[in-house]
């Protein structure tokens, strides 16, 4: 079985994650490059002292889904519809892969900020109360 070296990369997760290492060479003189981050199955992993995932792509997808919802409904819909669309379209984009990644307190704050920003845009007291009562996250 042949290895495709253009799609391979190395990522260091240890105390010495920031040390520059030599590239790994194969028998055929092809090398595997060291990377600072990679994406596998939609989860973005970054090099650090421990296993860490980046939420920037997930937040970007969440904001893209929220903007698509607003573009379609245009603020003319009932609060229940907006809340259901939020749960079915936007939240899965934000929380995808969060079970596989150890989240830190700052990651939880970042997710909470993204969701709270959505409700600030909607500016509906009813939706904010629904969010607080339903524990959407």
Keywords:
137 residues, alpha+beta, 2 domains, three-stranded mixed sheet, three-stranded antiparallel sheet, 4 helices, 46% helix
Task: Describe the structure in your own words.
Strands 1-3-2 form a three-stranded mixed sheet, with no helix packed on it. Strands 4-5-6 form a three-stranded antiparallel sheet. A hairpin with a 5-residue loop joins strand 5 (43-46) and strand 6 (52-54). It is built from four helices and six strands. Helix 1 (56-73) runs antiparallel to helix 2 (79-95) and helix 2 (79-95) packs across helix 4 (125-134). The chain has two domains: 9-50, no CATH class; 55-134, no CATH class. It has helices at 56-73, 79-95, 105-122, 125-134; strands spanning 9-10, 24-25, 31-34, 37-40, 43-46, 52-54. With 137 residues, it is α+β, with helices and mostly antiparallel strands. It is elongated.
